[in-house]
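Sample A.
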Amino acid sequence: MEKLVKELMSLGLTEKEANIYVFFAQNNSDKKNEVMSQLQIGEQELTDSLKRLTKKGFIRIKLQDSNIFSVIPLEIVMERLIKEKLREVQEIKGEIREYE
């Protein structure tokens, strides 16, 4: 689990965000109170982290209850991140060509 947390951190997550994501993925849990209890974090801290994870595309809020979340599978997240990085590389290549 520690290696996965470090890998997620290398993708731009904070340690807390990575731990929350891993908790969801490994425990099939989707409720805030379970995460707060297991990771020993406060409600506001969790809420803020969940908002950031949602914005980054790692989890999504279930529409019927904003206290229930679902994890985006890591494979899908990785594919998105790879595509984004490739797009960034292409932009950099284009900028380099402008200076040649």
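Sample B.
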Amino acid sequence: MYAGMLVILTGWGMYLGSFSPFLLLPLFVMVLTAQQIIPEEKFWKKSLAARILRTKRAFPAGFGKESSYWQKQSCG
């Protein structure tokens, strides 16, 4: 999505036929990274970490050999 925005801005600069819009592309990337991408990554890391902890608390035995033991006990 962000790469697409950069392509659109590049096309706009080519349409204008001026070099000045190309000077703003690095500024666009820096602002986008600082204002959107870094906070978004922090949110997802925090959200994912919380989900992993909830899963570990809900299934303390895990999903490996221990859980297959309980599946066999409930079926037979």
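B remarks: The CA atoms of residues 9 and 24 lie 9 Å apart. DSSP finds three helices and no strands in the chain.
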